[in-house]
Write a structure and sequence with these properties.
By secondary structure, the protein is an alpha+beta fold. Helix content is 34%, strand content 19%. It has a seven-stranded antiparallel sheet with strand order 13-10-12-11-15-16-14, with helices on both faces. The structure holds flavin-adenine dinucleotide, (2S)-2-hydroxypentanedioic acid and zinc ion.
């Protein structure tokens, strides 16, 4: 578990007293708080990867926006540090305390507020679980415009706070486009009601955009308003076996031409990633042979025969042109789940390795596999990879090709400072040279904030700090994270 090297608790933040706890109890009641119960606190103090752990003594689970407001107002006056928490599936250590910050969990705010089945506009509490919203919408012929492997636990409020991307972004775009309104509570307790259900509203600064991707540092999101698409009646999933990353790019380019408006996902993973998946799952490849790269393609449309014909023609062309060495179209729901299961199961499989160094980076699509190869070579040159006794087990690549988003994961035999020193800042310098981003969709948290200058100019960082100081002058929200402190 990371021990936050180089961080000290900032004593400007008040240590909790029983008076504080009594006041909080008066707001949320006995069932709305967990205090000094180590077992119950554990799940809120430890992140999904079991990599970061705080020592919070108090978790608050407000049920209303007013309760969130009362909590924050008091914390601001008393200078008590707070970590807003959704589903706690974040991967950059942003959702758990470093020390004894109070955790404000949104799990108690999980009601759907309204849905208009003409426009598809949904308003809901921030604590609604993504998959629950998607299932609820499914009954009405609609769906959420984003999908991630963490859908069963992550909250829509956490999705907004991290500006989550995920598997459907190539089709439905980012939350900056689909989110129409937000309700949030500022550190001083001010409730910002901007729960617009308008697709067009050009009246003043679009302030909701500031909260999307703010990772709990300028306010607690308590409600969202989002445009949801019709659930397609015809969904097809195919898997290609491909020999080179050049061919992955050709397959992607051709899919945009031939599948065009029905393309809803284009994901890739290399065979190294697949070997890690196989190691932790008794699953054999859905194909007879194994290939250096795999491409997962999903189409979503309204006419099964039309879509099937387009997809089959595309696959035949991929095979004829030698771009794909093998191709499988899922014949039923279980085969679709099996194909998606590998891609969505990579995170969990990697999480079962003794240690894993995770990087979520974006760059020109053509550079994605170069990054993997350069990292393998760099670690080999550094004596950390390539021999039986090397600390690094492998270097694997997968991700959202259409978004230029690579998930570079480096499983190792243990958390080894020598390996980290070889990776960072080498990788961030490499990404910066490609004019890429050191964090494509997972955000900054405590893992990437010190490297922000590799992706943002000094003037931008200075302006971000100004925003933060205006909205959270006492710095009570998610201290130590998101913006560089060193
Ligand atoms: P948490 O982890 O609880 O919090 C994340 C951050 O948001 C923290 O800084 C927290 O303080 C803040 N926060 C949470 N709720 C609020 C709120 N209501 N108001 C203000 N701040 C808040 N991410 C992707 O982008 N794309 C993927 O494809 C993807 N796949 C994943 C697959 C797996 C298996 C896992 C474990 C994670 C994946 N993630 C992915 C990362 C993670 O799921 C997302 O970042 C997700 O949006 C986090 O939501 P959450 O509710 O769990 O937030
Ligand atoms: C994905 C999940 C996190 C990771 O699978 O798309 O965002 O790096 C990732 O495995
Ligand atoms: Zn991802």
């Amino acid at each position: 578990v990371e021990k936050y090297p180089g961080f000290q608790r900032d004593d400007k933040y008040k240590k909790l007293t029983s008076t504080d706890v009594d006041y909080f109890r008066s707001i949320v009641g006995d069932t709305g708080l967990i205090y000094q119960n180590e077992d119950d606190l554990e799940a809120f103090n430890t992140d999904w990867m079991n990599k970061f752990r705080g020592q919070s003594q108090l978790v608050l689970k407000p049920k209303t926006t007013q309760q969130v407001s009362d909590i924050l107002k008091y914390c601001n006056e008393q200078k008590i540090a707070v970590v807003p928490q959704g589903g706690n599936t974040g991967l950059v250590g942003g959702s758990v305390p470093l020390f004894d910050e109070v955790v404000v969990s949104l799990q108690g705010m999980n009601q759907i507020r309204s849905f208009d089945d003409v426009s598809g506009i949904l308003t809901a509490d921030a604590g609604c679980v993504l998959e629950s919203l998607d299932n609820w919408l499914g009954e009405k012929g609609f769906m959420m415009p984003l999908d991630l492997g963490a859908k069963g636990s992550c909250h829509i409020g956490g999705n907004l706070a991290t500006n989550a991307g995920g598997l459907r972004l190539v089709r439905y775009g980012s939350l900056h486009g689909t989110v129409l309104g937000i309700e949030a509570v500022l550190p001083d307790g001010t409730i910002l009601d901007s729960m617009s259900t308008l697709r067009k509203d050009n009246t003043g600064y679009d302030l909701k955009q500031l909260f999307i991707g703010s990772e709990g540092t300028i306010g607690i999101i308590t409600g969202i308003s989002i445009l949801t698409p019709r659930r397609p009646s015809a969904i097809h999933v195919a898997l290609l076996g491909v020999d080179s990353f050049e061919d992955v790019q050709k397959a992607f380019k051709q899919s945009r031409i031939q599948l065009s408006e029905i393309l809803s996902a284009f994901e890739y993973y290399d065979n190294n990633a697949f070997q890690i998946f196989k190691k932790h799952n008794d699953a054999r490849s859905i194909m007879d042979n194994e290939y250096p790269f795999y491409v997962l393609i999903e189409t979503s449309g309204s006419n099964k025969d039309h879509d099937e014909e387009k997809l089959n023609t595309y696959l035949e062309d991929m095979m004829t042109d030698g771009i794909a060495q093998d191709g499988v179209v899922a014949q039923d729901e279980s085969q679709s789940k099996r194909i998606w299961g590998v891609r969505e199961g990579l995170t969990e499989a990697l999480g079962k390795e003794p240690a894993v160094y995770k990087y979520d980076i974006s760059m020109p699509v053509s550079k994605i596999n170069d990054c993997v190869l350069e990292m393998r070579d760099h670690l080999e040159q550094g004596g950390a990879f390539g021999k039986p006794d090397s600390p690094v087990i492998d270097v694997v690549g997968y991700g959202h090709v259409g978004d230029g988003n690579l998930h570079l994961n480096i499983p190792a035999k243990s958390a080894d400072p020598r390996v980290l020193e070889l990776i960072e800042p080498f990788l961030f310098e490499w990404v910066s040279k490609q004019k890429g981003s050191i964090s494509a969709e997972h955000g900054l948290g405590i893992s990437k904030n010190q490297y922000l200058s590799y992706s943002k100019s000094e003037s931008m960082i200075k302006l971000m700090k100004t925003f933060k100081s205006v909205l959270d002058p006492n710095g009570i929200l998610n201290p130590y994270k998101y913006l560089p402190t060193k």
